[in-house]
Design brief:
Length: 201
């Protein structure tokens, strides 16, 4: 049974929406956008063609997910968070810039938001950046470079201030060696076989 729900005012032009996902009022999902299962897409959200949203993703109100942005599973995007996909933007209709925009590879930069990441309200993510698994971007932060997994980033430009558990609580040390006093998760529990590459970063 596919229990998807699209609000009557939502404009959903993609047929790649997974079961259990809910698209709320005045959201617009363009043709070619992909949204996984059990997602919640808030009011006035825009998901552009070829953007990819994984499973169990929460996108709060007034967020634009542009072409080139990939949200992996279990990601949280707070209200009014801003993504970008062009580091040197000009109007493609301007004569001096028109040729640059004829091919996506001339301007489009991909942004990868890895599994379990949380992005706070009004944060800005510059293009071409990778946010590591289970990191947290504080409200209002401006992220200008890649972010390590399990880290809390604050400020403008964003800087690392702590390591985090998967539950979201601050750790009293490094995520590779510290057990969480909140949930009891150990470093061994934090890393599954598919996460072993994190140990070499």
């Amino acid at each position: 049974m596919n229990d998807r729900y699209f609000h009557p005012t939502a404009l959903v032009e993609s047929d790649q929406i997974g079961p259990g996902s809910r698209i709320w009022a005045f959201a617009h999902v363009m043709p070619g956008a992909r949204i996984g299962s059990n997602c919640n897409v808030g009011d006035h959200t825009f998901v552009e063609a070829d953007a990819i949203v994984g499973n169990n993703v929460t996108i709060k109100n007034n967020v634009c997910i542009w072409t080139g942005v990939v949200l992996e599973d279990d990601v949280f995007i707070g209200p009014n968070a801003t993504f970008t996909n062009d580091r040197l933007p000009r109007s493609p209709r301007m004569a001096q810039a028109r040729a640059r925009y004829e091919q996506p590879e001339s301007w489009l930069l991909r942004t990868i938001v890895e599994r379990g990441t949380s992005i706070g309200a009004n944060a800005t993510i510059l293009p071409g950046i990778r946010l590591g698994r289970y990191c947290m971007i504080a409200a209002g932060a401006v992220v200008t470079a890649n972010v390590l997994p399990f880290t809390l980033m604050v400020g403008s430009p964003a800087r690392r201030v702590a390591d985090l558990c998967r539950c979201g609580e601050k750790l009293n040390g490094c995520y590779r060696t510290t057990t969480c006093v909140n949930c009891g998760e150990t470093p061994a529990m934090r890393f599954h076989d598919q996460d072993l590459e994190l140990l070499t970063r």
